[in-house]
Amino acid sequence: MSRIVLRDLTKSFGDLAVVDPISLEIEAGSFVSMIGPSGCGKTTLVRVIAGLERASGGEVLVDGAAPVDARAHKRVAMVPQQPGLLPWRTVKANSRLLLDVNRKANPPDAADPLALLHEVGLGEFLDAYPHELSGGMQQRVALVRALALHAPLLVMDEPFAALDEITRSEMRAILNRLVEGRGVTVLFVTHSIAEAVALSDRVLVSSPRPSNVVADIEIDLPRPRSADVEDEPRYVELCAQVRHALHGSMRR
Amino acid sequence: MTKRILAPIVGIVVFLAAWEGLVRAFKVRRYILRAPSSAVRYLWRFRSDFLDAAGTTAQHAAIGLLISLAVALLVGAVLASNRFLEMATQPVLVLVQVVPWIAYVASVVVWLGAGNGPVLFMVALVCLPAFVFATVDGMRSVEPASLELLASVDAGRWETLRRLRLPAAAPTLFTAARFNIGLALATTYYVEGSNADNQGLGYIGIRAASSSTGADRLWATVFAMAMLGVIALAVLSWAQRTLLHWHAAQRSQPH
Ligand SMILES: Nc1ncnc2c1ncn2[C@@H]1O[C@H](COP(=O)(O)OP(=O)(O)OP(=O)(O)O)[C@@H](O)[C@H]1O
Ligand SMILES: [Mg+2]
Question: What number is the ipTM of this complex?
Answer without folding.
Answer: 0.88
